[in-house]
Amino acid sequence: MSDYNAPLKDMQFVLTELAGLAQVSALPGYAEATPDVIEAILEESGKFTRDVLAPLNFSGDQEGAQWADKVVTMPQGFKEAYAQFVGNGWNALSGNPEFGGQGLPKVVSAVVQEMWQSANMSFSLCPMLTMGGIEALELYGSEEQKATYLHHMVSGRWTGTMNLTESQAGSDLAAVRTRAVPQGDGTYKLFGQKIFITYGDHDMAENTIHLVLARTPDAPAGVKGISLFVVPKFLVNADGTPGARNDVYAVSIEHKLGIHASPTCVMAYGDNGGAVGTLVGKENDGLKYMFVMMNAARYAVGLEGLALGERAYQQALGFARERVQSRAIEGSVSSVPIIRHPDIRRMLLLMRSQNEAMRAVAYVVAAALDSAMRHPDADERIRQQAFVDLMIPVVKAWLTETGNEVTSLGVQIHGGMGFIEETGAAQHFRDARITTIYEGTTGIQALDLIGRKVARDGGAALNALLGQMKETQASVAKQSGASFKALAAALHDGIEAVTTAGDYIVTNYAKDVRAVAVGAVPFLRLLGIVSGGWMMARAALAAQAKIVSGDTDSFYPAKINTAHFYADHVMVATIGLAKEVVQGGASALALDDAHF
Predict the structure, then answer these.
(1) Which residues, 6 or more positions from 132, have their beta carbon under 8 angstroms from its beta carbon?
(2) CA angle 538-539-540, nearest 5°?
(3) Rounded distance, CA 322 to CA 541, Å?
(4) What is the pLDDT of residue 295?
(5) 209 — alpha (psi -120 to 50), left (phi > 0) or beta?
(6) Cβ contacts of residue 467 below 8 Å, gap of 6+?
(7) Which site among 103, 326, 500, 550 is 20 to 30 Å from 53 CA-CA?
(8) Which among 436, 393, 420, 411 is positioned nearest to 311, based on CA atoms?
(9) How many CA atoms lie within 13 A of 53 on its CB side?
(10) Does the pLDDT value for residue 318 go beyond 80?
(11) Do strands 207-214 and 158-163 pair parallel, antiparallel, or not at all (unpaired)?
């Protein structure tokens, strides 16, 4: 089994040098987010995740969440860990101070959230869904709903869920059938069943607040007829305490490939007279409101890909240092630790370099979200939001697809022992597999990217991003040494590849959407790899500046070397991916259905 130690040095480097923590702290409302405060928060989070959450990861996976008689019981230790989590204020970190939150920047919350996910992904899914519900209610809830729910949800005493999917609908929310019948007193009674509801029931919190998509009796068909409702597990008394049990129950939990300690519930609404709920916002606008939760969840799920990749890397590195097997290829008298073998080093650096690239992309996007929300200049808010909108599908899908690759490499480095559950390497691989499916599959994210984020604005947001990349590439090209030469060449080729593929999408989307859609996932992967290469180039420049200033910390030359490796081993895929986007449509669509 592996321990988890948060990579604080790299986290703080990315926060400071790439995400611009100083600029984020200067935004209105973030004055208390000073470097010393953030450093203390990250150190304490590192201790909590190492000492409290990480030790429950393997045992929770082995025991799993249990369901009996419509009640879900969490694995041993989870309830106590959650009480400590709430008591220490972790759930309230980025919450609105108006509702008891600490009001810290989203980028700081992202760093801490990565730690939760690395330490114990199953545990982390509970606060992740709660945070999305908080955001949706803050933006669209009534004053009464905010007063009733938000203080409790921000503190974490009450948790939240997102109820979208039904068995006949899947990702097609137009097919949602759950009914909401008005009662004439401002409440509704809901009837229906939802599936795949993360933490739909559990015993860690005193109440669970469900946000549920349903249709009112006169609603139009399709997505235009979906409304959003708040349905608490326990109805809330006038004094704000949980009261009578509502008619919503977990009727089963799924038996899954991974995340065994996270209860994935089938929820039944209204089997005994109707589940009482209240409407959020206006009727038939529910999908718009739910997308607030979905976008927050998509970013958080992207972090899961990074987080599990980091946990897998730490375990694989520890194993490679300790496992002695075979003589060195250049010749040695006795067997050596497998970290000496070239292919093991290649795999470890594939894991490490991609983790570092993912971390940089994720934190920079979170910092841009802070600016989009709080920057005093309206034009700058618009510019930052355009960047965030472009990058959210990349964060969600590229990070999770890469996380799957990285955790798979972790199993491979362990050899046969990686396939044995007792080592723990397999759990990271199993847990990661859901991340490319959660909150919209990779294919759905890619279609969103090419359609809504590239073709719709004629490539404006993409071209703005490429402009920033070109500035970095020019700076890298001015540096001396083999590493910077490789970085400059790789980033140049990557920018050209994204430009070629992006131009193809913009030009042909309206003409032949099916052919363009064939290349949607390759384009998303291309943009993710090049965005990661851009971040690694920026990191190398920042590290070089530290070295020039006289800093002798070995972290900085190692960062440059890791960026060089990323250029040589990851960025080389960009030209091929661009060709796949531009040329791949015809052959993919040539066969009719009968020939498959």
Answers:
(1) 160, 162, 292, 293, 294, 296, 297, 300
(2) 90
(3) 34
(4) 81
(5) beta
(6) none
(7) 103
(8) 411
(9) 32
(10) yes
(11) parallel
Q: Of these residues, 43, 439, 471, 496, which one is catalytic?
A: 439
- Cα(519)–Cα(243) distance, integer angstroms: 52
**Does the pLDDT at position 467 exceed 60?**
yes
Three-point CA angle 148, 150, 155, nearest 5°: 125
Output the CA torsion 173→174→176→179 (10° steps): 130
Mean pLDDT confidence for 541-566:
98
| Nearest one of 486, 532, 534, 512 to 581, comparing CA atoms | 512
**Kindly report the CA angle at 6 between 260 and 118, in degrees rounded to 5?**
15
Residue 477, sorted as left (phi over 0), alpha (psi -120 to 50) or beta, turns out to be: alpha
Phi-psi region at 284: left, alpha or beta (left = phi > 0; alpha = psi -120 to 50): left
Told to judge if 439 belongs to the known catalytic residues of this protein, a careful annotator would answer yes
Amino acid at 441: T
Distance CA 103, CA 33 (A): 9
| Nearest residue to 107 (alpha-carbon basis) of 305, 436, 360 | 360
From CA 421, how far away is CA 514, in angstroms rounded? 42
- For 128, the enclosing helix (H) or strand (E) is helix 121-140
What CA–CA distance (Å, rounded) separates 517 from 533?
25
Q: What is the pLDDT of residues 66-99, one digit of tens each?
A: 999 999 999 999 999 999 999 999 999 999 999 9
For residue 87, the SS3 value is: helix
Distances (CA, A) of 460 to 64, 491, 503: 47, 20, 11
Output the CATH code of domain 136-284: 2.40.110.20
Residues 117-168 have pLDDT tens digits of 999 999 999 999 999 999 999 999 999 999 999 999 999 999 999 998 888 7
* Ranges of each domain in the chain: 136-284, 442-596
Q: What is the CA radius of gyration of the chain?
A: 24
pTM, two decimal places: 0.96
Q: State the Cα–Cα distance between residues 104 and 480, nearest whole angstrom.
A: 40
DSSP state of 237: P
Mean pLDDT score across all residues of the chain: 96
